Amino acid sequence: MSRIGLMGGTFDPPHLGHLLIAEQAREQLELDEVWFLPAAIPPHKVGFSSADHRIEMTRRAIQNQSDFKLNLIEFERSEPSYTVETMKRLIEQYPNDEFYFLIGADSLVSLESWYDYETLIRLVTFGAVARPGTRYLIPEKADVRAIDMPQLEISSTDIRERAKRGKSIKYLVPTPVEEYVKEHKLYDV
């Protein structure tokens, strides 16, 4: 049985904060691997880069990390990417593995509003990462493990805005991601 951390998101672009969360979760939760699961159709976001760009940037971001894997399960269906549906399919495909869904502690507050929350909390253990200015508010019946990590305030939104303004994104994203963004002029206005 393997212990697998799951890192979901649009990854538009993937940045060093994502990698730091994945590494701290891998170490502290004693995970065998961390799988990056780019969302095909994020249910609560609009205006994101194409799937091809987001997949390739994620692949490049983790290419030198042997414990990090890219998993495209969210692209196997045409409906919005609800976590509970992804978890059901992963458990069906990998019945002998144990999954930990990595989440920001700030998202725990709204966890009860997630699609089919009751089923989701029965299926998965959450690895919660504190972000600046948040507290752990653990919903009832949810299995949540705390992940301590250095505070690093980096967001994909800020990176996109910097790139749109022609500002540097160096040291915010892995070098191969920075090169890809420049090569494809992803966030140019």
From TrEMBL:
Pathway: Cofactor biosynthesis; NAD(+) biosynthesis; deamido-NAD(+) from nicotinate D-ribonucleotide: step 1/1. Signal peptide: none annotated. InterPro entries: Cyt_trans-like, NadD/NMNAT, Rossmann-like_a/b/a_fold. Catalyzes the reversible adenylation of nicotinate mononucleotide (NaMN) to nicotinic acid adenine dinucleotide (NaAD). This is Probable nicotinate-nucleotide adenylyltransferase. Its EC number is 2.7.7.18. Residues 6-162 form the Cytidyltransferase-like domain.
